[in-house]
């Protein structure tokens, strides 16, 4: 939690840039936030090995070894998800910042032995639109907690800072 970052950025003239990460559709979420967002909900499913060592699992003695079916390991706000799974759900932070905030974005995290990719299903309901998005990200071989798309998103964000043409918001 860094509640002082935005005021500090305003005071110093700095900008805080949050890459999209492994998400899709943040332009639509940001556009919906120009009106009234009623709800933002994300369901994340990861292979169990992608969640090993997460503070929430260790602190709550949640065993995800040898699962035979999907297990709900977290349900709460994006703010709590970011603290409980700091290496796993950067997508929750980006989604909540684009939408209706970390306290009003709800997250489910599942350890699922039947998935081989990190999946995110996002549902948004607002006064302007209602939509659902789904993405399957290939986990990084070096770090299964994150996907291969995440570093590419960072590169795209950096290139966008100096690009002549910008696509999307």
UniProtKB/TrEMBL annotation:
GO BP: NAD+ biosynthetic process
One Pfam short name: Asp_DH_C
Domain Aspartate dehydrogenase: 69-155
GO MF annotations, alphabetized: aspartate dehydrogenase [NAD(P)+] activity
The protein, known as: Aspartate dehydrogenase domain-containing protein
